[in-house]
Amino acid sequence: MNSESSYISCRDVFKIYKVADLEVVALRGLELEVARGEVMAIIGASGSGKSTLLNILAGYDAPSAGLVQVGDYDLLNMSSKQIVEYRRREVGFVWQQTSRNLFPYLNAQENVELPMLLAGAGGRERRDRAIELLNLVGLGDRLSHKPAQLSGGEQQRVAIAVALGNRPSLLLADEPTGELDTETGQEILDMMATVNRELGTTIVVVTHDPAVSQSVGRAVAIRDGKTSSEIRGRVSFDRQIGGGRQDVEEFLLVDSSGRVQIPREMLDSLNIQRLVQADVEDERVRIRPSNADDEEGETR
Questions:
Q1: How far is CA 176 from each of CA 76, 121, 291, rounded to the nearest angstrom?
Q2: Where does the chain hold its CATH 3.40.50.300 domain(s)?
Q3: What pTM, to 2 d.p., does this model score?
Q4: CA atoms of 287 and 276, how far apart (whole Å)
Q5: CATH superfamily to which 3-90+168-261 belongs
Q6: What per-residue confidence (pLDDT) applies to 211?
Q7: pLDDT by residue (tens digit) across 21-57?
Q8: How far is it, in rounded angstroms, from Cα 162 to Cα 177?
């Protein structure tokens, strides 16, 4: 996939936070391409940079350098007014904590209508759209129920309907199954697939759970602030309880500068430290330890 055909394009993205006199680099030249209408996952351990990337894509934070393009929006060079418009029109967001998604004193229909009200939609349009979305997520019989009257899975369904109220092209979900059991989590993922199929919404799920990432067609792993590998091939979510599965393949990513992140365990197994030698042999790139590392160690 090239950047010209992508709906989301991130190129050489850096994000630096200043804490007192220290600078913390959260993203280090990250690159990512996502096609319009795709459902994909971003995975990574805590502190890997995945939440920082999600906040940038949501318009809650701005990159320090690089290119972040979502549709027609350049997220590095937007005015305050454009940021508000982007959040309101282009992107919907689902938090892991349902309390951040829903107002407890509003019922399901009222929660879904609220973003449309803020966007200036008329009363009948809001009602019809809210009912349509709640039916889509399987809660057409829960319109008048408040969050406390709904299960955790039902609250997440309402949250997704809320995020879709203003017909965004992009839906971002931060650990949407993190507080749910396996079966309920699978229902949420299946429902997102339905949303994608029915509405054509591009969906990006951020998670630390490989089981969730393997329920989509493509997952990109982030390590140390950079995209490191890509997993392709769908695996059924119930594989952990004896369900069927399909084989998946994992690929290392090569960025626009030719950089590749080689897993630490591979480097350790070959005793590769700071220097390597690379050549091409039989149409393959071969990387091997460099004797210069040993020589350098002896001179210290």
A1: 27, 27, 48
A2: 3-90+168-261
A3: 0.84
A4: 6
A5: P-loop containing nucleotide triphosphate hydrolases (3.40.50.300)
A6: 66
A7: 888 899 999 999 999 999 999 988 888 889 899 999 9
A8: 17
